[in-house]
Structure formats: C-alpha cells, structure tokens
Design a protein that fits this description.
391 residues, alpha/beta, Rossmann fold, Trna Endonuclease, Chain: A, domain 1, nine-stranded mixed β-sheet, five-stranded parallel β-sheet, 19 helices, 14 strands
Amino acid sequence: MIPRLLHHPVKKAATSFPIIGIVGPRQSGKTTLAKQLFPKYDYVNLEQLDTRRFATEDPRGFFNRFNNHVILDEVQRVPDLFSYLQAHVDNRKENGQFILTGSQHFLMMESITQSLAGRIGLFNLYPLSYEELKREGIQELTAQSQILKGGYPRLYDQKVPPSLWLSSYIQTYLDRDISLLSQIENLKAFEKFVYLAAGRTGQLLNLSALGGDVGVTHNTIKSWISLLLTSGIIFLLQPYYANISKRLNKTSKLYFIDSGLACHLLGIHTKDQLLTHPLYGSLFETFIVSEFMKFYANKGIDQPMFFWRDQLGIEADILTTSGNTMNLFEIKSAQTISTDVFAKLEMIQKIIPQKSRLNLIYGGEDTQSRTKGQVISWKSLFKHLSDTPQG
C-alpha cells in the first residue's frame, strides 16, 4: 500500500465528526485508505447485490448487524441509508462511528445536504500526487513520463501496463458508472464526447462548440459536463473576479484530473508522441493544475483557486490568495527559461490593486529565486506550496 497524505487529516477529523466521507474518482484508493486507517471497523461493500438489497429493504436491521464502527463502501448505491445514518449517529452521540466512501460525488452531496450537514467531515481523495510518489521513490524521472502515466494507484502498486489498465478504466466508466449516474440514450455520442473533452483539457470550455463537434445540443453538453465533474473525471477552474456573481457567470477552464487518462484518450502513448503533440503544453498545464488541487486536498486545506484572463487575453494560469496577497502562477512546459520570464505576470501585477507574488512553473530542473519572482521546477512545486502561506 502506498501511504497517502490524506491519512492525517482524515484520522484527525474522525475525533470530531460522527461520520467521515471519503469521495473521489473510481480507483483513486478510497477503500484501501479507509481500511488502513480503521482496520478494526466492520467493512461492508454495498456493491454486492445481496448486501445492497438487505440495506435497501431493512435499513434498521442492516445497521443492527454491525458493531459501533463501520466502513460503508460505495454508499451512494443505497442513498436511502443517509436518513437512517442521521438518526443513528444522533442517538449514539459518538465521533468516528461511520466511514463512508463513494465514487459518485453528486449523489453523496445531495444526501449530505439533506441529512448529514454538520455531522460529516468530507474529504476528496484524488489519484496519487507527485509528492506521494516521490516520498516512496516510485515517481517517474521526467515530466513527460509522469504526465503519460498519471497517478492512479493500481499503475504503481500492481505494475499494470498503463495502456491496458486505462482502456479498461474507460470502458468500465462508460458501461457501469454512467449507467448509474444517468439514463443516456445515445451512449456512443457520450463516448465520443469524452474523447473530444480530452482534447479540450487546459482550455476555455465552449459548450456550443463541443456540442457541434459531438452533434448534440448545448444543454446536452452542459449535462454531460456535469456527469464528468460528479464522477471525478474533470474539474472546472473558474476565472477570478472580485465580484463573485461575475465569477459564476464567466467561462471556466476544463481540466482532466488525471493527465494519464487524458493522454490515453488522445491516443498519446509514448514520450515522443507527447513531446511533438500540439496539446503538450495543455497537458503539462493539466498535470500542474491537478497537482495544485491534490496538494490542497491532501492537506485538508480549503484553498480557492482561479485563473486570471482579461479582455486582451493576458492570463495567469493559476491565482491563489494568501491573506491580502495574490499569488500569480504562469505554467510553461519548456525546459529553459526565457529572458522575459515574468513579462505577462507583470502586466497583471500592474492592474490588480493587491500586493502580488509572481511565479513561473516550468518543465526544467532548477528552482531559482529571482528579483521579480520565483522560477519553480515542476519537481519542486509541492515544496514551494508547502512553504507558501495559504488562505
């Protein structure tokens, strides 16, 4: 088992909440983490048909079968259990009673909003981060190799060929997960949409253009994007606006959570193919932005992330805040540093009223502290984030 950085936040939260929820993409390691952290708990897999039927038909009898501490795996398969969980934990008044895992975010979140608000500590577990891989000495040595392989744990602890495993993962997702999430009449069109979405990673999301390429309506693409979001395949990065209502109405950028999955969908299987592919820059950006997201999730930090883009197209790929200070990041796949490394970020710096720090994350090996800002190697990103105040 590869140790996960989420270990400590989850363990700590179990002393403060009666229920812990661990959600995330399929095969990200949720069940393994829950069993490792709580080895003495009863384990119940609600994927099993007979267990699921029992839980659905007789939830009170189902709960009475187990001791006071239970792991409920794939709990979204029996959403009616959430109302019984509420009554159960309220009567017992003890922290750390239940550990819930689930792959489908929206079913759990809807039920949590209705039944478990204030009773659950909720965590996202994503595929392995570069930091986790490096701690174990099993990271890839080049950025290209790391982007190609991605971070799904099975590729590292079982040493499965990435192409074979990712093909199976995609087929399982289409055949099984999507059928549970939604009744899609044209699964072939949805499959085409998933492949085309990979070609949009790291880019502004244009629902109409994507709908035109797939041959479906704008509203259909909108609903399908929601499916990819809720099943942990993609996430959307919002633009930064001081006015929050403007943020929600402006165009977001689409990113795949796992760069290896995006590469596979694009038919990229070797380093040479990746380096010469027109989307290499976008895939490198996808990898880096995903590493940001994993870093904050693994530390249990609620750190908002945005991108900056003005009407002239001047852009900062990532914007975070530390108190009253803005952290501006530009991401470049190049392995060398240009002389005007901070030129674009300096233009933004002149516009925004807040104090700001400038950072370039690039595909090279050296991390440098310069007068105008930080030049950060992709290998050192997690160290830089660890040293930067959050909030």
